[in-house]
Prior knowledge:
The chain is an alpha+beta fold. The protein is built from eight helices and 22 strands. It has helices at about 5-15, 180, 195-200, 225-230, 265-285, 315-325, 330, 375-395; strands spanning about 25, 25-30, 35-40, 45-50, 55-60, 65-80, 85, 95-100, 105-110, 115-120, 135-140, 150-155, 160-165, 170-175, 205-210, 250-255, 290-295, 300, 305-310, 335-340, 345, 355-360. Helix 3 packs across helix 8. The N and C termini lie far apart (about 55 Å). Bound molecules: 2-acetamido-2-deoxy-beta-D-glucopyranose (5 copies). One 2-acetamido-2-deoxy-beta-D-glucopyranose (NAG) binds near residues 49 and 51. It comes from Lasiosphaeris hirsuta. Pfam families: Lipase_GDSL_2. InterPro entries: CtCE2-like_dom (IPR037461), PCW_deacetylase/CE (IPR052762), SGNH_hydro (IPR013830), SGNH_hydro_sf (IPR036514).
Amino acid sequence: MLSISSLAVSGLALLSQASATILQNGQVRLTSFLNTQVNQSAYSFTTYSANASEISYQGRWDSKFVSWWSAPGIKFAYTGQTVAVTFGELTSPRVLIGYRIGGLDWQFTNVTAGATHLLVSPSTPGSSQTGPISPWTFELRVTNWAFGIQIGSVHVAAGEKLIKLPDLSRRIEVIGDSLAAGMYTSYEGLSSWAYGLGAGLGNTDYSITAYPGILHQWFYTSDTSYRASVAYGDNPEAWDFSKRPAADIVVINIGTNDQNSANNVSAPAYADALTKIIQGVHGKWPNAQVIVMSLWLGFYQSGNSYFPNAPQGFVKEVQDMVRMFNSEQYLDNPVVYDGVTKKSSQTGKRTKAFVHLFNTSGIMQHNDIGPQWHPTDVGAIKVASHLQQFIKLTFGWELQATGPEIFHETLYWNDEPGY
Length: 419
Ligand SMILES: *[C@@H]1O[C@H](CO)[C@@H](O)[C@H](O)[C@H]1NC(C)=O
Ligand SMILES: *[C@@H]1O[C@H](CO)[C@@H](O)[C@H](O)[C@H]1NC(C)=O
Ligand SMILES: *[C@@H]1O[C@H](CO)[C@@H](O)[C@H](O)[C@H]1NC(C)=O
Ligand SMILES: *[C@@H]1O[C@H](CO)[C@@H](O)[C@H](O)[C@H]1NC(C)=O
Ligand SMILES: *[C@@H]1O[C@H](CO)[C@@H](O)[C@H](O)[C@H]1NC(C)=O
């Protein structure tokens, strides 16, 4: 575990869940979370259990179908105009989820453990449109990065059915801390740069293993939350990497908290931890390309302008580490690391270079970091956009999103032509 104070930070978020407020330039945003809870006995459904092969789980879910980390979700296609979900008892109280039909904007609702929520009915936006996406598709993501849901069962109208969606052709994994998880952005996971990256590339399945103070925890299904300690004590489920296809690209952004001297993480300890994560990724997914993102801090005002806080976080350590990974000597005999057994071993098999440095300097500016030292929605969008372009230029991935990458409620504009 790298970070100490970040755990305190997550504890704080836990306390503030019930009264979170979204601020726009200091003003409170009006939110309208739908009330979707229904009495199931008033409906006639065809019901699928959580283990139905038609349900594609995105991100990490444990053997009880409990979600972990940031923006985990489910998706499937369906017939009829009804989708309801019964949430299991292990669902966090009043957790916020986003969901949508096809590529339309997200709708939000707080869900209740043990309750059934009617998420799609004929009046849901998109329900009356039969194309171009056909049959209808449904996607749900947990927006609160610190909380989770348990899928109990999924229902469609009586006589209708779920249809499995094929995996998309590309896969991204983002490994990060609170800055990737979406802490302090409007809709947390669904406003994070990690979501923007995955959704914005298009035709890409994405998984965001981001949580304050992640590290060897990447090898496990659950994050490092209080919720996980209650669920598992000292025995978290190891993540079964065979459950999902290997990621093609893994983006790693960890350490912004750690370079804070208050956390007392030494530069060598940081470099060692980051090295092990990359060696862990290479062990699990030998063909994955790894992008290490440099870290960023906040800005301060000095006189009549703004400047980045110095130092910019383990710069030399990151550069040295990337150089080491790309040295001929290393490529000849790379090391893989297993975070469960905590064992490193040499593969004895030459590999092609796979570690890249993405320098974030100059992307975000003073106004892109909120008062709690995390990217604002705009900051997150900037990071995601630059990263997409980097991936396009480095790996030749075309940007294939055709409209449905939606950062909910970021539609700010001026409607006055003569303003
Ligand atoms: C819904 O979730 C949001 C985000 O966690 C929270 O701020 C809000 O208080 C919740 N609303 C209800 C009615 O529980
Ligand atoms: C749900 O509906 C059933 C049948 O109409 C009724 O018996 C039951 O009391 C209802 N439950 C709640 C919590 O309203
Ligand atoms: C799925 O779960 C149901 C009960 O929830 C069980 O009866 C069934 O055997 C399970 N199927 C598989 C394939 O695990
Ligand atoms: C910081 O870490 C070092 C090495 O682990 C330790 O010796 C030192 O006491 C720590 N300082 C504080 C303030 O915790
Ligand atoms: C990123 O670029 C800036 C500006 O060129 C440079 O000062 C900094 O050292 C670079 N950071 C890394 C980690 O290479």
